[in-house]
Amino acid sequence: MDDLDDGVSRWRRVADGIRNAISEGAIDDQLPTEGALASQYGVNRHTVRRAIAALSSEGLLRAERGRGTFVNAVPQRIVYPIGTRARFSENMMRQSLEPSGRLINAELIVANAAQASLLDCKIGAPLHRMEHLAVAAGVPLSRSTSLFSADRFPGIIAAYAETGSITKALEMEGLADYRRKETRLTAERASSRDVSFLTCAPDSIVLVSRAIDIDQNDAPVQSIVTRFLADRMELVFSNAP
């Protein structure tokens, strides 16, 4: 272990080492003792405990009083197709998973230059900014922030709060169908807000999708930024409708 690393880097490297050992089968059921891990990675026991706590918060490990720390079954990543129709509820139901959406926060804002360009509206136009959580089988999978024209969709917030579905909320606002125009994907470390709402470790990786949805006349419907937990989701890009 590099002595120049700070404490955070060390526990993250220990956590990554344990995670890799589990995925490669080097650790099967029960973790070695804290002392053994500290010796293996050249760190103190406090660093090992912090790494184990992070992996436990991810659901990878569990502590049993008087017995030690054990490996949980690694959950299979949920497949999420991204094509011309990106529909969370439909995607989950195809995999026999019960979907739901939760409203985190909503506010009325005025469009800045970048937002006006995305939604083809005037700078200063009123927008609904909605932050929401996507859940399947009780597990939080992604956190999104959507922007809608408040003039075109005045009741979108209340409609989403009632239905838990963007598609159903737009239907209530008079839009029968829409499609994905483009999706741009990057990756980064989880933010403090991700950790809070997605119940993940601080060093988790999130896949960040920035997308625009349009109606049948090619008019923008929503700008949406979605943060998917990489260890829970597998994004599949397809040209299929």
Automatic annotation (TrEMBL):
The Gene Ontology terms for molecular function here are:
DNA binding; DNA-binding transcription factor activity
| Keywords on record | DNA-binding, Transcription, Transcription regulation
The record's annotation in InterPro entries points to: Bact_HTH_transcr_reg, Chorismate_lyase_/UTRA_dom_sf, CP_lyase_PhnF, Tscrpt_reg_HTH_GntR, UTRA, WH-like_DNA-bd_sf, WH_DNA-bd_sf
In its UniProt record, which GO terms are filed under biological process?
negative regulation of DNA-templated transcription
Q: Which SMART domains does the record match to this protein?
A: HTH_GNTR, UTRA
Does Transcription appear among the keywords? yes
The keyword Transcription belongs to this UniProt entry's keyword annotation: yes
Query: Which residue numbers delimit the HTH gntR-type domain?
Result: 8-74
PROSITE patterns from the UniProt entry? HTH_GNTR
Q: Which domain of life is it from?
A: Bacteria
Write down the NCBIfam families for this protein, in alphabetical order.
C_P_lyase_phnF
State the name under which the record lists this protein.
Answer: GntR family phosphonate transport system transcriptional regulator
